[in-house]
Every structure is written in structure tokens, then in C-alpha cells.
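Appendix C: a fully annotated inverse folding record. The material below is reproduced so that readers can follow the format used throughout the book. The structure is listed first as C-alpha cells, followed by the designed sequence.
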């Protein structure tokens, strides 16, 4: 069954789909209307299609990262961005209060590190505990984690950990050389085993092929348990990075990946993340129709621009969508 889906018994005793590149690519290549019809049907079977979940992302430590990720302006291998120290807890809490007031139900905090140092762990724990006390879901993206670090943050009550695999294993070395693809997967394993929900996706527009994009989703969908949250980013070319002059992704190809992610991971939250400033309202609407059901709000996303709340509110209102906590079928 080289190009067909296979079914096996998972670790919890339930049947699960095992995806091949061929079976996933066959779906991707469907006529566009057929692909969207299928993904919308799966989306409706698992979620309220007229709801979108809102998250807010705060850069709690900017720049100075030793990794050489070709897309990232926070790398020391890029140019033009000065490094900052870790934010103080009071400042993080003030931003979290504002995020909640603007409608966010999840608060994500990111630090430009290869991995957290022991001296910073207590501060991270305090941030997790403080944000949770506001009634917000918590998410961190701090680079690689050891099993011990993952357990420390789990004990603090961390809900989600973001660690994107970025692209296919084949194309990965063209983008990053200071960290291996297998190390990315190791961190996901540590997070999952600690009981934290996994947030992991990738970036489109780095010079990868369609097969690379499909393979990225195959890797995620075939994890022992797929990520609860799958962010799909459209590359924002940043000045001073190696990928500052790449060609843009065709919008239809991007929407196809959103639809494929929904089909391959039916109960995961598919997040329409970076790059929305470059998307027309019509493109975003088709992404929602294809199965995306989560966005970041606010004017900035780490070091890049993000549509402001006014534009998002206008778009969702015109689409007849409401922005609340993520509501799934069968939940009150």
C-alpha cells in the first residue's frame, strides 16, 4: 500500500491513520473544489465552523539566538536586530491583562534561545503561573527542551509548548544547520511525555517544494499523537536574513496545505499564523473555509507585523464568524 492510507492500533488502543507521502499528495492534488469540500466537511464534523480561537504572542526575550534559522531576524547570523534581556514578570503580566481584554483566550510567550538556561527557569515558571491565574491558557516557545525542563514547566501548569518542525526532513538542512531535525522531534517527545499539549507546524515559502510541504504534514500527522495545535506560517521575508528575497507562495497552494492539514489532523486546531498581513481578506476567508480555526491577534507577531484587531474584527464580522474560545462538537 505504497500510496494508500494504512490503519494501525495506536498506543491508546484506538485505530489511527498512518499517512504516506503518496496518500497525502493524492489529496493535495484533488481539484480545488473537491479538496475544500472534503476539508470543510471534516472541519464541520469536529468544530463549529463559525468560531475562531484567538491567541496573543509576546516576545519575552528578543534577539541574540545562536541558531542559524535562515528565516529568523532574531538569529545572531542575521543583521540589524539588537538582543534584549528577558522581560520582567510585571511587564509580562501587564501585557497578558491587555491580551485578555482584547479577547485572547491563549497567551503565548516566546524567547529567542537555543534552549532555556537553568538560571531562567524560575522566571519562566513564574510567568506561566501568573498568566494562568488570569484564566488564560498558557503557551511557551523557548527552543529545545530536555525531559527535565519539560517536566518543570508541566508542573508549573503550562498548557501548550510550541516547537515547529518548519519543513520536511529532506529540506530542513537547507534552512537550519545548528540544530537537527531529529532534535526538533526529541523536544516534541519530551513535551508530550511531560503531559503538555503540543503546538507544532511549519513555514511555507522558504524555497521548499510541494512535496516538502506535504512531507512536513505527514511527519506531524504520524507522530504517536498528532499536535493539538498546528500553526501554518506564510514566510515573512525579513531584511538581513538569508531568505529576505525568496519568491512568494501562490495563495492557492497555501490554502491547499491548510485543507490538507485539516484532513490529516481532523481534531487539531489549525492555526493561521505568520504572514496574514500579506493575505487578502478573500485568501484568509478561504483558509477559514478550508479548516483554519485559530489566529494570533495584535499589531505584531514577534518581530513582524500582524493585522491589527480592527482589521480582524471587520473581517470576522463580514464572514459572520465569532471569535471566542475554541468550541468543538460535544463540548458545552
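Designed amino acids, in order:
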Amino acid at each position: 500500500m505504497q500510496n494508500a492510507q494504512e490503519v494501525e492500533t495506536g498506543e491508546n488502543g484506538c485505530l489511527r491513520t498512518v499517512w504516506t507521502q503518496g496518500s497525502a499528495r493524492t489529496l493535495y492534488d484533488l481539484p480545488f473544489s473537491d479538496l475544500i469540500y472534503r476539508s470543510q466537511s471534516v472541519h464541520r464534523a469536529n468544530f463549529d465552523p463559525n468560531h475562531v480561537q484567538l491567541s496573543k504572542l509576546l516576545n519575552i526575550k528578543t534577539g541574540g539566538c545562536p541558531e542559524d534559522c535562515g528565516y529568523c531576524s532574531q538569529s545572531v547570523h542575521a543583521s540589524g536586530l539588537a538582543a534584549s534581556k528577558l522581560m520582567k514578570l510585571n511587564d509580562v503580566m501587564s501585557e497578558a491583562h491587555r491580551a485578555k481584554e482584547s479577547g485572547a483566550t491563549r497567551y503565548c510567550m516566546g524567547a529567542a534561545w537555543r534552549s532555556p538556561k537553568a538560571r531562567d527557569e524560575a522566571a519562566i515558571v513564574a510567568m506561566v503561573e501568573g498568566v494562568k491565574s488570569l484564566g488564560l491558557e498558557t503557551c511557551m516557545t523557548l527552543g529545545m527542551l530536555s525531559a527535565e525542563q519539560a517536566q518543570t514547566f508541566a508542573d508549573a501548569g503550562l498548557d501548550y509548548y510550541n516547537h515547529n518542525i518548519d519543513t520536511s526532513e529532506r529540506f530542513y538542512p537547507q534552512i537550519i544547520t545548528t540544530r537537527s531535525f531529529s532534535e526538533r522531534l526529541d523536544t516534541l517527545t519530551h513535551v508530550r511525555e511531560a503531559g503538555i499539549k503540543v503546538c507544532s507546524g511549519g513555514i511555507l515559502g522558504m524555497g521548499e517544494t510541494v512535496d516538502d510541504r506535504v512531507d512536513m504534514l505527514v511527519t506531524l500527522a504520524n507522530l504517536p499523537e498528532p499536535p493539538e495545535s498546528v500553526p501554518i506560517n506564510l514566510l515573512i521575508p525579513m531584511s538581513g536574513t538569508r531568505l529576505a528575497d525568496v519568491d512568494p507562495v501562490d495563495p492557492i497552494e497555501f490554502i491547499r496545505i491548510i485543507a490538507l492539514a485539516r484532513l490529516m489532523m481532523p481534531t487539531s486546531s489549525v492555526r493561521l499564523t505568520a504572514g496574514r498581513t500579506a493575505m487578502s481578506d478573500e485568501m484568509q476567508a478561504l483558509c477559514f473555509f478550508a479548516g483554519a480555526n485559530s489566529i494570533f491577534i495584535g499589531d505584531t507577531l514577534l518581530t513582524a507585523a500582524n493585522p491589527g484587531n480592527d482589521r480582524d474584527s471587520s473581517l470576522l464580522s463580514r464572514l459572520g464568524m465569532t471569535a471566542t474560545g475554541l468550541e468543538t462538537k460535544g463540548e458545552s
